[in-house]
What does this fold into?
Amino acid sequence: MPTEPEPLPEDEGTGAGTGVSVDVTSFEDLYRENWAPMVRLGWLLSGNREVAEDVVHDSFLRLEPKWDDIRDPRSYLRRSVVNAVAAHHRHSQVEARHRPSGAPYAFNPEFEEVWAIVAHLPHRQRHALVLRFYLDLTVEGVADYLHCPVGTAKSLIHRGIAQIRERVQS
It folds into this structure.
C-alpha cells in the first residue's frame, strides 16, 4: 500500500468538503482552485498519491473539451475523480489476479494508526467512509456516487466504522 504523501498546497477556501462555492468563470480558475482538493480526494480514495495525481490529471483532461457543455464543472470533476479511482481499483484487482504473488505491502511506520486501519479496509468501505466523512456527503449522496442502494451505502459505512473501532480497541 502507499507511503504517506508530502503535504499538498493549502486550499484557498474552496476545498472539497468545505461547503464554500465560488463561481468558476474559466477552466483555468477551476483547475487552480480544485487541483489540490481533488488530489487529496483521490489520495484518500486510492491510498496512493501518484495514482491520485494521475486520476485528477486525466479527469481535468476529460473535462476540458466538454467545458462549454457542462452545467456544473465541479460536480463533474468530483464524479470523474471518484469514478476514475474506482476504475483504477477494478484494474488493479484484475492485475492482482494475474500477477505472481510477491512480498506483502510495507507501510511507513509513521502512519497514523487509524489511517493504517482505513487503508486495510475493502475499497468500497474505504470509498464510502471517505465520501461520507471527508466530502461530508449524505448517505444518499454516498449511495449515488457508489451506484448502489442507500441500504448498501449505510451498511458499507457501518461496517467500515465497526472494523475501525474493533481494530483500534484491540
